[in-house]
Amino acid sequence: MSNLAKIAPIVRGLLAEPTDNQDMLYEPVILKSLTSKEAIDFAGTAKNAEAQHYPAPLTKGKNPPLFLNDVNYNAEPETLRKQLSDMISDYSQRHGRKPEIVCLRELGILYVERKDDNSDLPLQNKVALITGAAGAIGYGICCGLLENGCHLAATDLPGKKLDDFTADLKQTAGDHVTVIPIDVTDEESVVCGLESVSLTWGGIDIVVVNAGIPLVSFLKDIDLDDFQRLEKVNVEGAFLTLREIARHFILQGTGGDVIIVSTKNVPSPGAGFGAYSATKAACHQLGRIASLELAQYGIRVNMVAPDGVFSEGKYKSGLWAEVGPDRMRARGLDEKGLQEYYQNRNLLKAKITGRHVSNAVLFFATRQTPTTGVTIPVDGGLPDATPR
Prior knowledge:
Blueprint: H1 3-15, E1 17-18, E2 26-27, E3 30-34, H2 37-43, E4 66-68, H3 77-95, E5 101-104, E6 108-113, E7 127-130, H4 136-147, E8 151-156, H5 160-173, E9 177-181, H6 187-201, E10 206-209, H7 224-252, E11 256-261, H8 274-294, E12 299-306, E13 311-312, E14 315-316, H9 318-331, H10 335-344, H11 354-365, E15 375-378
Parallel strand pairs: 4-5, 7-8, 7-10, 8-9, 10-11, 11-12, 12-15
Antiparallel strand pairs: 1-2, 3-6, 5-6, 13-14
């Protein structure tokens, strides 16, 4: 991890304003970085505080920048946090407010982006990252988070699908969206992805673990390579994401939220779905364990368990693209008939959409209740899948 990516979340956490809301203990900031030669040169000496020209888009304000020239970038995280905390606290006492421009010798500048628009939205200035975003459920979740004020890092495997997906979101959300290619099965890719978000907005507050792949096959017919392919994405991918975001949240020091997109197949598996059900159950269990381990840091980990989400807008479910043909053949149905079958099997006869899943994610992300380690079913009512 680069020094700037390591320091940015710590500074962002220290610049967050404490609140009297026990569910939302801090009001976060968007912390941007400048790493041009001009910015690095400016950050090199506190004498530049008196300069009339600041690196764009910065302007000279009433209070000077904070120059962190004596920080040991290679110190252990707790030592580094203590150094930065003391310097920011001293600045606040001298100037009556926290700094909005922080200069780091040889690294560049971190600065608070101030915008007054949509300040009443519940997730204003929160940064969310979603894995496996470029599909039906991912699209619904992305739209919900953006509408509630989030800055959003949409991640998926690199390629045209992700680029087109992000371009669609940018049409309405603009610079509140960034695209981060991440392969969740690759440790370096996950680490670099989170680092990229830190360099873009200073840190992360919400992670939605959505990446997952299916397989339709009876146990007696499953090839080991195919089973291991699901295990890599659904289990190892979830593990790597949870591990790295836990480290990030602890470094930032302001808590955080993880929401795992589970499935009704965890409590109620189906024949021919053994590999998917088993690997998603392992992912689900990692989430429950993470909720036990991370609560002490103010980090909440919860799950949502949807059933039968076929599409959201123009985006179709990758899972159902894989599963649908087999299910249609088994029941003698076309695509429309299959969707009606899944709708009619739930108690409410409800069509489950990506937006419904998004609403469950938002319940946790907006911290409507002091809750961690639990699952919200999003299935229209399936008695066999009720968590127990």
